[in-house]
Please model this.
Amino acid sequence: RDLLFFLVWRNVRVRYAQSMLGVGWAVIQPLFSMLVFTVIFGHLAKVDSDGAPYAAFSFTALVPWTYFANALGDSAGSLVSNANMIRKVYFPRLVLPLSSVLAKLVDFGISMAILACIMAWYGIAPTGYVVVLPLLILLMILTAAGIGMWLTALSIQYRDVHFSLNFLVQLFMYAAPVVYPASLVPEKYALLYSLNPMVGVIEGFRSALLGTVPMPWGAVALGFVVSSALAVSGAVYFRNKERIFADVA
Model:
């Protein structure tokens, strides 16, 4: 536990220690993405936003999505970036990707504060489903950790995984309702679509904070099943490969 806490704190400090903007980077990424999406999808393409202002609609999705994307990027490269450490001393290697996932919660908290300001600007009050937010955040973390463990174990042996990750995450974003509502997905594909755990997370955030849709209990429940399977299988695969990490790092 002490090692995990130390690595989380180190990851936070390393991110901001020599940065001119500091924590401003946690604001700039989702905020500028929101502005671009609002202009392109909200004003030019006229994408439906379930009755909410498109800026609030897109930013509510970008908060969990940005956390998820950044947590995957950091966790996938955590073993490679700490190669010197894992060659010199033994410790549970699993704490490296997990610390990357947990460290990104600092950025997530800052983004949530900005979202609260945007909601206040538009006069939007959260719904009673706001009590479900901790459950949705847990699902978000579990999904990032599960996929992160798989990618971490694969990327140290196959470096193409890390190199292609940014491209794959960008593509994967359009498989989640970030710039469009899930209601646009045909009903016959709804179950298949909900296999992506981030669908339940994003739509759940919109339900809790904007009240644009009913709480997607089915997608959330299916998301927990999928993310739990990813986490368990990822941990097993990671532990099976752990013995070769020091040799190939």
The chain has 13 helices and no strands. Residues 70 and 104 are 7 Å apart (CA to CA). The chain has a mean pLDDT of 88.
